[in-house]
Every structure is written in C-alpha cells, then in structure tokens.
Amino acid sequence: MSSATASTNNNFTPKEMMKQAEKYAVGKASKPTRTTIALAITAGVFIGLAFVFYITVTTGNGGVSWGLNRFYGGLAFSLGLILVVICGGELFTSTVLSSIARANNHISSGRMLGTWAKVYFGNFLGAMLLLLLVSMASLYQLDGGQWGLNALNIAQHKLHHQPLEAFSLGVLCNLLVCLAIWMTFCTENMMTKMVIMILPVAMFVSTGFEHSVANMFMVPLGITIQNFAPESFWLNLGVLPEQYNDLTIQNFIFANLIPVTLGNIVGGGVLVGLSYWAIFSSPKEQHATATIITPDFSNTHTLNMEHTMLNEKQFVNDHMRPATITLLPGMPVAQAIDILMSEDLTGAPVLTTDQRLVGFFSIHDALVDLWCNDYMPDAESKVQDLMKHEIQTVSPDNSILEIAEYMSIDKNILYPVSDGGIATRFTSLSLNERARAMVINRPHCFPVVKDEQLVGIITRKEIVSALRPVYGNIVSVTEVANTDPKAVSDIA
Fold first, then answer.
1. How far apart, in whole angstroms, are the C-alpha atoms of residue 135 and residue 39?
2. Residue 489 forms part of a structural domain
3. Domains: count for the chain
4. Of 128, 290, 322, 482, which has the most beta carbons under 10 Å away?
5. pTM as predicted
6. SS3 227
7. CA–CA separation, 481 vs 449, rounded Å?
8. Looking at residue 121, which CATH number applies to its domain?
9. In this structure, what are the phi and psi dihedrals at residue 144, rounded to the nearest 5 degrees?
C-alpha cells in the first residue's frame, strides 16, 4: 500500500510533516484508557529521571560559568524526552498537540480534554513513584548533601515567579518541547530523532523555562527533603531547614503548577499545533477530515486468461453497488449502529452534508470503543469520535482481480524477504499452503471514489459474485438423473 507521504530516503517535507503530526495527534486520543495512563506513568518517571540527571550534573560545578553549567544540565535533561519518544510514553506537554485532531474534527472537545486529563494524572503518578524511590535511596545525601541542597534551591526558585512570569515561562518551555517533537516528524530514523531533540530541550532547561511534568517531580522533591531530611543533613551543610519553609504543597500548586500548565497548553497546543495547522491547511483541507489512501495494485499478479468469464466485466464499475447507506459525522453512535444493523451492514462511509467523504464507521470501531471504556461507553459519543479517518478507496476503473488479490494476499507475508532479497523466514510449506494459512488485515469493504466523489461501494460479496462463474454451473441431481442414471448412484 502506498503511504503517499514517505519518500525514498524516509525524510519528509514540512507539508508531509504536517500529515505525520495529524496522525500523531489522532493517535494520542485513540489509545485505551489503561494504556494511556500506563504510558503516562512511564513518561512521568522518564522526565523525573531527567531531572535527577540534571541535578547530578549541575551539583558541585563552582568553577564552571553559570551558562555552561546550566547548558550541561540541559544536555543531561534531554535524556527525558529521548526516553519518552524512543521507549514510548504519553507526556502531557506533547499530548496537547492533539489540538490538531480537534481542529480537524477527528475528535471531540470532550475526548481531547479527557485525554489530557488522563495523561496529566498518569504523569503525576509516575513523578510520585520516582520521588518515592529517590527519597528511599537518600540521593539528597550525595556529595555531602550538596546534591540535596541543589535540589532545594531549584525547587524554591520555581515558587518565586509571579503568575504571569510562570505562565510565560510555561509557554516558552512547551513551544520548544513541541518543536522538538515536531522535528521528529521529518524522519523515521531513531538515531536522527534522538539528536534533533537535544538542543531544543537543552535550551529550555538551561534558560529556566517551566515544564509542568518536570515540576511535578522537582518541587515535591524539594518539599520532601525540607520535611524529612535528618538533622545531620542540615548540620553538615550549615543550613537551617526554616530557610525553605516556603516549599509547601499549596505554594507549589498555585504559584507554579497551575500557571505553568496553562502556559504549556498555549505554547504547545496553540503556538505549535494550531499554528502549523493553520499554515499548512488550506480552507478546503481544514474541513476535509479524511486521509484517502489508494491501495497499491502495481505488484498484483497479471493474469493472462482466455476464460471469457474473467475477460468480461472485470472492473469495479460493473459490480459495485450504490452507496445508498451513509452516515453523518455528528450522528450518535447508537443511531449509526441501528442503521447498520437494520441494513445488515458491517460498516458505511461517513459523509458531510455537502457530500464530502470524511471517514468510515464500522461495527468493529464500536466494539473497540466498548472495550476501551469497559463496556460503559460515553452516551454522547458521535460517529466522528470513533470512525476511521484513513480510508482505503478504489477507483471504478480498478480490476476486480486486483482487488480480489489485495483483499486476500499479502506479498510481504507470502514472500518473506528483506529489501536486499535475503529470506527472513524459512518454511517447508508450499506457496499454496502459505497462501491458505495467511492471515492479513485488509478492509472487506471499499468506498469507490471518482473525482473525489463517492460513487459506490464494493465488498467481498460483490467480488465473490463477480468471480463465481469460474466455478461453473451446479448441475442438479434431477438433471443428472434424466441424462445419466448411473451418475446419480455415483453421487450418492
């Protein structure tokens, strides 16, 4: 299948990066709740580990200039975002890019905000988990307690911004974080992704911009040290714990976390996500909510048959049926399911009131949504919340044989070889046995599109109906008895 966006060297233009960002944004809101929270916990731990690295690198560097010391710390902190991207994680500051999916009407406002809330909660749990481990390990005692003193000073500094300052620092921070994520859309190479994320992260950290998830770990770490460090810790440093009495949960929430979080939303969701969406989406594209993918039939087997039943009427145009049943994006899911059940269909195209194809909704989408919500779905769910936005379509001029092969055969599975022609899997099964045992994930129903307009539907039923004549006619037992009584006893 053609990806339409990938080039031969796996690099992408800015316009193609926007398409990657749209897929990224939809993916943020498409995961099951349990998966989202679990990955968010992981990301919270990763960002906390990055701050542990930052504190370690910047502790005891009295002979290094202020700027270089913070730059070294910023380089160390970039490990956090690298871990999130490479190892997998849901980070609130990058999840706000799902604003693109909302702008494209791929998801509802409720689903977007719900995703943000789940990721934010999971990030906080991850930060608290790492805080517990760091506290139990007494890392604040490192370098004679200088590590802990550094952590206290960093945490205290974060609580002394004015609300507008904290908000602005949050905007600047997530502007850079989301730009770092955005740059990863230009390539599929993991090493390249790692390298291009380092400098944006190093800049926001070294300059003192504010990251809400990092602060979920950093400030509570300072509060924990201030409240639970033993007396020997303070005596060894010659510092009084009362100097850090302003490290309280109330100050953390109202003086830092709330304004910084709001700033992060604006910096990433608006200045990066919606800005690029507005730049690269024309008015027509801003309302077109579907990505049309045309299956690649170039590698299908070309048959040279003299059988007239295959030579005549082999095209989609001759066998497709009218798309009389379509759904609306804003239609309640319950109503859409009722329509599909009443028409004995497994899915249907989704059209806007001006007849633009914007998605495909199926019973499978509803079943997945039920599982994701523990079989307690949102009663307000609309078709546009669940439908597939990437639609595989065919042309009326496509061959029935091409589509039949595409539906049932995957050459990459049938012939398991690398790009260099080296076999990647060995088997004793014959070609036909491999084909019969093959399980592939391909649509059973294709919208038929001509000149960007939906003109029909073709399913497996129509494909099989078109090819049924190759099996010949079934001769009834009565007909056989009239012509050859002995053959009837053979059949029996």
1. 23
2. no
3. 2
4. 290
5. 0.68
6. helix
7. 49
8. 1.20.1080.10
9. 65, 25
